[in-house]
Amino acid sequence: MKDIHSLLYPKSIAIVGASRDRDKLGRIILDNVLKSGFRGAIYPVNPKAKRIKNLVCYPDLLEIKKTIDLAVIAIPAAFVFDTVKDLTASDVKNVIVISAGYSEIGQDGMMSELKLCTLLQERGISLLGPNCLGIISAGVNLNATFAKNAIRDGNIAFLSQSGALGSAALGWAEETGVGFSHFVSIGNKADLSENDFVKFFISDESVKAIFMYLEDFVDGRGLMELGQKTGKPIVVMKPGISEEAQKALGSHTGSLAQDDLIVSAAMKQGGIIRVDTIENMLNLMQMFSFPKQLKGPRIAIVTNAGGPGVITTDSVIQEGLEIAALSQKTQQALALNLPSSASVHNPVDVLGDARADRYEVALKKVLNDQGVDCVLAILTTQVMTQVKETAEVIAKAARSSRKIIIPVFIGGKGLESGFKVFRENNMSFFRYPHDAVDIIAFLNEHTKEEGHEQHKLKSTLKAKKEKFSKMMSNNYEVSDLVDVERLLREYEIPTLDSFFIQDIAGARKAAKNLKYPLVMKLIHPELLHKTDVNAVRLNIRNESELEEALVSLEKLGLKMGLSHYKLQVQHFVKEAVELIVGVKRDDAQYMEIGGKRILRKQGFGHTLLFGMGGIYTEIYKDVSLRIVPILERDVVGMIAQTKINQVLKGARGQKYDLKAVKKIIRNINQLILDFPQIYELDINPLFVKESGVWAADVKMVVKKYSK
Amino acid sequence: MKDIHSLLYPKSIAIVGASRDRDKLGRIILDNVLKSGFRGAIYPVNPKAKRIKNLVCYPDLLEIKKTIDLAVIAIPAAFVFDTVKDLTASDVKNVIVISAGYSEIGQDGMMSELKLCTLLQERGISLLGPNCLGIISAGVNLNATFAKNAIRDGNIAFLSQSGALGSAALGWAEETGVGFSHFVSIGNKADLSENDFVKFFISDESVKAIFMYLEDFVDGRGLMELGQKTGKPIVVMKPGISEEAQKALGSHTGSLAQDDLIVSAAMKQGGIIRVDTIENMLNLMQMFSFPKQLKGPRIAIVTNAGGPGVITTDSVIQEGLEIAALSQKTQQALALNLPSSASVHNPVDVLGDARADRYEVALKKVLNDQGVDCVLAILTTQVMTQVKETAEVIAKAARSSRKIIIPVFIGGKGLESGFKVFRENNMSFFRYPHDAVDIIAFLNEHTKEEGHEQHKLKSTLKAKKEKFSKMMSNNYEVSDLVDVERLLREYEIPTLDSFFIQDIAGARKAAKNLKYPLVMKLIHPELLHKTDVNAVRLNIRNESELEEALVSLEKLGLKMGLSHYKLQVQHFVKEAVELIVGVKRDDAQYMEIGGKRILRKQGFGHTLLFGMGGIYTEIYKDVSLRIVPILERDVVGMIAQTKINQVLKGARGQKYDLKAVKKIIRNINQLILDFPQIYELDINPLFVKESGVWAADVKMVVKKYSK
To answer: Which of B313, B345, B412 is nearest residue A242 as measured by Cβ atoms?
Structure first.
């Protein structure tokens, strides 16, 4: 583990490029360090100056002759390497390279970056950047960035792969009063990367929530696993969902594309909140910086306007939250205290002429209701409305309750007096119901499920490894299914008995062993969608039909010019639902630079896919995805996430063998854990009936796993 | 058509309830009328005062002894009826009842509302309200509401069914500088309703765009048809999508639930923009109040920050817009004028140290590109950023281009100087890319398609009417399909030949007439999902299987205790795609009040549904909906909207008979136009193969149509 502590809590800091010119980046950084009240040693480095701002200035880092915890380098890229080339870890522990001109500008820059990073790694010196804004660390009163914002102390750790977005967020925080424990501009991530910091933030007590803007993951799977280990909220914004955005990313950093479905699955499994807009990220920062625990999804609405109440109700339902059902007692208490035409159901309508006192009593009663987890207090400006007084009443209610109260004040100028009250009380507030509901939905998503247990098969791994050693030792693309079927049966995954035949004698033998009706398929590696080319004969019920099928498929094989095709005979399963269970491995990616093989990013490893199988799989994409290994709750969750689940549960009258389906998913998970060599495994269709499941069509690829 | 002109452009106005007490609603309205500069005659009405604000005060309306264009009534509901009971149309042309206490409070209020409305209708007096805020009309300098906001003149007509939301929007407009030609608080819609006003706004030249917040439609189909006839943008916010919101609506007005899918289809067909959040509604108001035409969906992004550029790109793609491909010429011009590490592709990155001049040149080049329809100018505050100057450069570019430029300034406090520039230049601006892109997407949606032509069948309607007179004259639920098949064939909709059999002799006869393989079904009105109970025998290939099927289905009928079931035999269509084409009529709704039958709302009429058929129709809901009559572009659009369209077009190798499918949709449309008595018609599945379609299973209900 990297020594992030000495970087974020340095006792001494050197600033290379500190200058007498107030507009130079190095000077801006020095000014920020001084202004922020850093109490450790500060060493400006600049060969052309003796003193800057009353501090002794050093010609180079070695001349300081003390171990420096942190050197911030803000000079043109061309001079950076020479500045650090004679350093050892006893001279400088950490280097931040602010300078741009590295991998973000192309091949040449990539070479310089690699050279710089390799040198520092050999010397045991950590590198943050290059091409970054610097860091802020509230615990040691340090602002070592060139951002000019006044940053408040707080409990949010914020890491940004975009300097611009980082400084925009700092500006926004200045306006809203959100405070940070740390801000890290991570730049090109040549050495230190997000996971190093996340690890540290998890253990740092001053951090209550971790926010990151990332354009790629150095090790997404590792991040997921960190998320699984901590209860601290982690929020990630990661764009690049569309191809066009991937292209744009490619043009401005050296980012690597990542399958977005895998990213979403991994974040979900890691209990990490993934936001999709800057607005949501900032709003969540505000929520987590004044933290109260969201108890659950049951929302109560108190409003002085019916229309916005209805609009908010729609939003609540659309975001998967619930409209709390108020108890009889609460409704009676409201009826006693509100005018007769007020609505005492949820949304509670205190009417257009409500003054602050009416909000006060309504909030009190609603907050006391055990069926309410969170309250939205909606106000529109009407003739009698008391904006400031109502805001004060809401703030008071928030102070005296453990439940979250979110004000939504809709309208114009007149609202500022209310917003001021909320700012003074460190409360999040919104101008539109939709934005508030969005944020509650994110908080609710973070209310993590318990039950991290992983299902375990009684594994006789050693025996299995021996049994399948040949199959697993080679790059293996299956066309002969016999081996795979053996493997699946070992993992208690039933397959349909198959016979591969060459003539009518073989077909008859197959028919003797299998029960009519039968199905006969033409098998060839190039035939992916057999149904589409009519290469499957279903419901063969007697010998004459068997002969017919054989002759017609042989004809088809000839007509299509296929060589070495096979004819497979199985029992025909009627009235089954067709599912898909698939596995694919996301491997690490490497690149060659100057003859060296460089790890660009870790893979996510195996993903497990479940969903609607059969001929429409690719059209309806009714599938869910998880990263292997999955936990028991993932087995349940990934089935529940699909629409085909409704069919399995009996939406069309017939129920299907859900228990067996779950077992298949668990066992495939175990199979992959035992044999990570499996690169791809596709069971489609997996037949399920009222009782029992059968893998009907299987495809498997084995490929060496270089982790 | 109602005489809305005298209501919105009155020459004289009486205010009943004008008072010396400054806090009374009537007095607030009088003050607003005076303050707004209304130049017509103003008559306060109050039996207890002689003069108010230097105006002669009248004891009642009749005493004015002149024809009053508009009487605004703001006295308790209990006294309203008596106030108007002796009026005729030559006394008062229009009445606005501000007073609450009518249908929104329940049964008693509903009775008073009905009584009031009936009286006024009999006298030929129009009624706006009751339970409303009043009206604002810029053309005659009239603010006849009790809203205290200062309203700017403008070209937006805004109608709101929620008074509170109306006044919140007025407050918001005050802050943002949006101006209104008219504001109408429509209240309970006892008499005048939204469509009366929309008709008028369409013809009123001062109105450039029509905005409405509606909680229900008095006549949604009528609104759709108005939308089809005008080129003016109409924007509707209509909540109540969720059941919970429907409930809340029920509790605060007397609104009626409406199938939300129908609402969306009708709005789309009417070229009406439906917004889902208050924020989007207000932002669109701003866009339309400073109108430029959006030329198309190709967006260019100019940014000083890569991250936000990528994020915006994602949003653009997700909202169905396009990232413009910049021409070679533009890219070269950008390369000549920007630093070498700038990105000259779209998104154009002018780099973090860009000052205003760099934005200026980039905007100019990008706006000149013929492949660009709209430009997003993104700014984040960085060290060198010139907020105000850049805003001025953007405003200048906007003034000199016919293309829409939208600034998105991300960050905190420092941005206000830029926002001020945009406000002064009447420009819409945003703080987050996502919001800006949302709005462009809405504008793009409004770029209406041409081609309003309707497909016409050569109709020999008279002959058809005679032929099917018996079937169409009764309430008719089909269990015998023979009649329906005759009807469908008349409309060139092929059906599978059917035989209804009772014994093996009948079965054999059917087999003689149809070709093997056959399918045999057990038909009974109570059997909706035949496949689920195994009441369908597929792929019957010879006589012995025919016998088997007959015996087993008879057994099933007995076992299920069905009486009068039928056995249907058809040819078995193999390897077809299963579609659904359905029609359902949305009828008007009435209610009884005091023995009178009152129209509550018009229906939308017939809706036509198309999509994936077969056993998963209800699970995957891959369907599209239109209101009958459909136009040719709807035929294309409703197929394109579904995923099954990909299969029809050949996503799985095989192409299907799209031409025949389109013909079926057109002909069903014609059938419904000819026979509006049809209440429901369901063809599921409609088989389609490479060549040809067949209606396999049909259900039809005929019900008298009381329009």
So the answer is: B313
